[in-house]
Amino acid sequence: RRCRSAAPMALPQCQTQVVLAQRPTAEIVPGEHLVTSTDVPVPHPAELLPDQLLIHNLWISLDPAMRGWMNDRKSYIPPVKLGHVMRASAVGEVIASRSAKYRPGQLVQGLFGLQEFTVVPAKYAAPCLVPPIFSESTALGVFGITGLTAYFGLLEVGLPRKGETVVVSAAAGATGSVVAQIAKHVIGCRVVGIAGGAQKCDWLLKELGLDAAVDHKAADFGTGLKDACPQGIDVYFDNVGGQVLDQVLRFINLKARVVICGAIAGYNDTNPQPGPSNYFSLLVNRGRMEGFIVFDYSHQYAKATRDLVRWVQEGKIKHREEVVDGVAAAPHALLKLFSGANTGKLVVRVGPRLTQPVPAPSKL
Predict the structure, then answer these.
(1) What pLDDT tens digit does each residue of the chain (364 aa) get?
(2) CA distances from 74 to 1, 11, 18, 177, 178 (A)
(3) How do beta strands 107-110 and 90-97 pair?
(4) Which residues pair with 104 in a beta bridge?
(5) Contact of 107 with 92, CB cutoff 8 Å
(6) Beta-strand (E) ranges in the chain?
(7) Dmax over Cα atoms in the chain, in whole Å?
(8) Do residues 51 and 122 touch, judged by C-beta distance below 8 A?
(9) How many CB atoms lie within 10 A of CB 25?
């Protein structure tokens, strides 16, 4: 079906879409690994099968996990197939529905991909329940998988207690910033953020109110970390792995908890990074290092989201977004996550709504 010009205010005939053309072995190269097309036909509402939805994406999330989804190896979720639309979380509006669960105009969220329009079975969409006083994009950030990852990783795996020292790597990032603020302003811990560069460290101290910030790019990073943690480290929330993790292990306390959320420092490496040389500290201090996947806590999402909304409203959590416009800009914007060029949650603004809003089917 070829693209045709559309009448004003009508559903567009063509859309922009990003597909995985090749699997990267190191850094992502837009145009080589992720290929953008602007002449992909938009599905027609009449083509929907029973229980399907036609969705127009409004906001798309850019996440470090997307790099792992490009690799053809065993993981917690199957890899993206070559030639298929690049997987990405999104918030969209229902344009047409053949499901009793959703009506046109309702906001939904799910893994709708790097594209403007998509057709999905209704079971793969979930109502977007963000309170109307917040932007729809927060369903991908502080109230979405990003915030939920911070919530469960810290509270269920890290188990912080008031007065303990919590260290967070990539603390100026989308997940790390939420972790740090929950630990500081909700639990009452001493919180040390690790970030790259003086500007990010300054933001952690002045905007988020952390107790200390350490620049991992500094030549004396190890000394700076030691000075920032005079009582040692009780909980470490790790988003980066590599040498930062290795340095942190030098200073962990008895019964310390190390939460493995990500290892972004090595996502683009051709060869696997060597294991931490200071791992023996876990034995000596009877520490625990544990990974987790946020999907394992899906049955608790509603309560966690209610908590996150309340903490934001109370001023205990601040959140920042970096917005890029248009699906075509996504492949290059994605690279910012691996160079450390962004602060806060990175999202793509796809375009304005095409439907009139209707109330969500339920509340938080």
Answers:
(1) 555 434 334 789 999 999 999 999 889 999 999 999 999 999 999 999 999 999 999 999 999 899 989 999 888 889 999 999 999 999 999 999 999 999 999 999 999 999 999 999 999 999 998 888 999 999 999 999 999 999 999 999 999 999 999 999 999 999 999 999 999 999 999 999 999 999 999 999 999 999 999 999 999 999 999 999 999 999 999 999 999 999 999 999 999 999 999 887 555 556 767 778 999 999 999 999 999 999 999 999 999 999 999 999 999 999 999 999 999 999 999 999 888 888 779 999 999 999 988 876 555 6
(2) 36, 39, 23, 29, 29
(3) antiparallel
(4) none
(5) yes
(6) 14-20, 34-41, 52-61, 90-97, 107-110, 117-121, 126-127, 165-168, 190-195, 212-215, 233-238, 252-260, 288-291, 321-325, 345-349
(7) 70
(8) yes
(9) 12
Instruction: Read off the tokens for 221.
Output: 């990073």
252 and 287 Cβ atoms separated by less than 8 Å:
yes
d(CA 139, CA 305): 10
Stated pTM of the model:
0.88
For the chain, how big is the Rg over CA atoms in Å? Answer: 21
Side-chain-side CA neighbours of residue 21 (13 Å): 13
Strands 34-41 and 14-20: antiparallel
**């790597």: which residue's tokens?**
169
Residue 337's nearest CA partner among 151, 142, 68 is 68
What are φ and ψ of residue 171, in 5° steps? -70, -15
